[in-house]
Amino acid sequence: MPGRIITITSGKGGVGKTTATANIGVALARRGQRVACVDADIGLRNLDVVMGLENRIVYDLVDVVEGRARLRQALIKDKRLPELQLLPAAQTREKSAVNEKQMIKLCDDLRREFDFVLIDSPAGIELGFKNSIAPADEVLIIVTPEVSSVRDADRVIGLTEASEKSSPKLIINRLRPAMVRRGEMMDTADVLEVLAIELIGIVPEDETIITSTNKGQPVALEDRSVAGAAFTHIAQRLLGEEVPFQVFDESDGLMERLARLFRRNQ
């Protein structure tokens, strides 16, 4: 059975796409899935650093597309999880070095070898975004619970649907319950009401993300991290498991509001 190609994207930069890509990849690999993480942010690669694989890069995505390296030469195996591999982006090339057809061909080759291909999309809605969603079977949109991020995500949802992709799913990242209670941050139900797409995960703010990124040690490798557990739940839902959503004590009546939203969208 061919693998699933999932693009992880957003309209706004800095919302956690790369961290999510690495951690969902780790969580899937820990469940025995063969996973390829692809950094599509040509010129500004970061996925290799988050995964702790930056010192092992020899070839990159552009080398494969331009025929200077075979796909297997460019893929980097994670020593901690043999099922997990990385295809890094080129750091010294422009985004125009790769086009949509080349990305589709590359990902079709990857899906023959892997159960999941996770594409880390660059920020924005220009060429890099179009290249990233072109091969996708599914799209996950990352948003933080703030007005600017939600507004940009709404634009990306429209572009994704215009590309005739299946309805994207939503990950709400960096939720801070204390700020929600003080009215300083949108709550989950508010975000869902605006964006009106299926929720697949809520990831709370977790300071271990910063230390894990600096160490190249994704939090999904640790069972004690609350963010790691949230990314693991997302992976489980991608695998078709029924996993209840955690409630982070955001505000009174949250579960009732969520229930109304889900009933309305059925």
Please, could you describe this protein's structure?
The chain is of the alpha/beta class and 266 residues long. It has a single domain (4-265), classed as P-loop containing nucleotide triphosphate hydrolases (Rossmann fold, 3-Layer(aba) Sandwich), CATH 3.40.50.300. 41% of the residues lie in helices and 16% in strands. It has 12 helices and 8 strands. An 8-stranded mixed β-sheet has the order 3-4-2-5-1-6-7-8, with helices on both faces. Strand 3 (76-77) and strand 4 (84-87) form a beta hairpin. Helix 1 crosses helix 11 (226-238) and helix 9 (188-195) runs parallel beside helix 12 (254-265). The chain starts with a strand and ends with a helix. The model has no long low-confidence stretch (mean pLDDT 91).
CATH topology assignment: Rossmann fold
Residues in β-strands, percent: 15-25%
Task: Give the CATH level 1 class.
Answer: Alpha Beta
Runs with pLDDT <50, length 5+? none
Number of strands: 8
Helix content: 40-55%
How do the strands line up in the largest sheet? 3-4-2-5-1-6-7-8
Any idea what the CATH superfamily is called?
P-loop containing nucleotide triphosphate hydrolases
Identify the overall geometry. globular
Features:
266 residues; alpha/beta; 8-stranded mixed β-sheet; globular
Question: Topology, pairings included?
Answer:
Layout: E1 4-9, H1 17-30, E2 35-39, H2 47-50, H3 61-65, H4 71-74, E3 76-77, E4 84-87, H5 100-111, E5 116-120, H6 127-133, E6 138-143, H7 147-162, E7 169-175, H8 177-181, H9 188-195, E8 198-204, H10 208-215, H11 226-238, H12 254-265
Parallel strand pairs: 1-5, 1-6, 2-4, 2-5, 6-7, 7-8
Antiparallel strand pairs: 3-4
